[in-house]
Amino acid sequence: MDISSIVVAILALIGTLAGSFFAHSKTTALIAYRLEELEKKVQKHNSIVERLAVVERDIKALNEERQGGESS
Fold first, then answer.
1. 2, 18, 40, 50: least CB-packed within 10 angstroms?
2. Is 60 exceeded by the pLDDT of residue 8?
3. Over the stretch 20-33, which tens digit does the pLDDT of each residue have?
């Protein structure tokens, strides 16, 4: 085994490690971004659900008022 094959093997190892590191960091960044976007969507959904509950409560109160007025 000569020195040139050892150098080539070491360079290949360094290239492989660097490629793996950058690919992993890119994947991690993408996952973090997608998680943030999903959290925004969930918050928007929860806001709509809360507003809908208020509207349903108001409609129920109005219906009860109307029914109370009809029977009087």
1. 2
2. yes
3. 999 999 999 999 99
